[in-house]
Amino acid sequence: EESERTERIDAALAELGDDVVILGHNYQRREIVEHADFVGDSYQLSKEAAEADAEYVIFGGVTFMAESADIITDDDQTVILPSMEASCPMAGMAEALQVDAAWAEIAAAAPDDDIIPITYMNSYADLKAFCASQGGLVCTSSNAHRAFEWAFERGDKVLFLPDKHLGENTAHRLGMEDDIAEWDPWDPDGKDAEEVADSDIILWDGYCQVHERFRTDHIDRVRDEHPNARVVVHPECRREVVAAADRVGSTATICETVATADPGETWAIGTEIHLTNHLQRWHPEVNVLPLCGDACMDCNAMRQIDPNYLTWVLEELVAGRERNVIEVAPDEKELATVALDRMLDI
Ligand code: 13P
Ligand code: SF4
């Protein structure tokens, strides 16, 4: 029962005091967000983790976010992920070993060019480390364009991974949409060396299974049914969806769009359904609609953080036991720190 669980969480938090901070991504369930000390997008959460003093950082989010928190926090701080099953499928679409092998092929296709790899935050620590080792960095959806600019000041080409849609949307923002090659590591015909040689941006063929499901039909339907509606979408959506929307941005931008809307305005939200539901609750004066109507755009990875698991990890800490600790290997940590610091500096 929820009220009993809330009492147990509050009791554990009272016992743990300043030893614990809870960070929650915007896609977390209401029962997690309500207990979080800070709720935000990936970039904001990485900054909060860097500034946190608490001995334990409990991360309401997915593995790559908890790994980044472990990389950014001090060595004497411990990061805990309430469920070890919370893994973003997109992050799994660019395994460091696979990227390492592709890197040799891509470099061979453009032997005279300096290629800078940029990985989206939605990737594992070993890939972040790989990018740093090749002179690259990390970005989130809120600073991808600045990461591209940073890279083009230092090299000739960018390899962006894993999210081809964020890559394409960023290329478009920079006026480089005609300068793209795609690299599909799973398709023998998906690696065109000539195209790589001729293009300044090379996009790895990964995607978010939640955002890829949004279609321009959804936008057409919402505009038919609500003629005053405006549409805001996440840049992990397909290019044509972003082009048809009124606004695009990270989950923090989507929150701000609704927070600053006038009462009575209508906004349709093209992102994970839990955030849309939060925005409806947080801003009842704004008419907030899910862009997909009744079709549920639910992130299965984020959903793994069940409030019962949050209760469990907190009560275990009270009992002196650390459960579900996320710890990045020291050698990877050192390089991944470089990649994350480069992002935090831009
Ligand atoms: P934000 O960086 O916009 O919070 O997005 C994270 C994410 O996983 C989007 O699918
Ligand atoms: Fe990964 Fe997409 Fe879920 Fe974000 S919404 S955590 S990118 S699967």
Task: Walk me through what this model shows.
The chain has 3 domains: 131 residues, Rossmann fold; 114 residues, NadA-like (Rossmann fold); 88 residues, NadA-like (Rossmann fold). Helix content is 45%, strand content 16%. The protein has a 5-stranded parallel sheet, with helices on both faces. Strands 2-1-3-4 form a 4-stranded parallel sheet, with helices on one face. By secondary structure, the chain is an alpha/beta fold. It binds 1,3-dihydroxyacetonephosphate and iron/sulfur cluster. The site of iron/sulfur cluster has 13 residues, from α14. The site of iron/sulfur cluster (SF4) has 13 residues, from α14. Keywords: 4Fe-4S, Cytoplasm, Iron, Iron-sulfur, Metal-binding, Pyridine nucleotide biosynthesis, Transferase.
In short:
Its main location: cytoplasm. The chain is built from 16 helices and 13 strands.
List keywords for this structure.
single chain; 346 residues; alpha/beta; Rossmann fold; 3 domains; four-stranded parallel beta sheet; 16 helices; 45% helix; globular; binds 1,3-dihydroxyacetonephosphate; binds iron/sulfur cluster
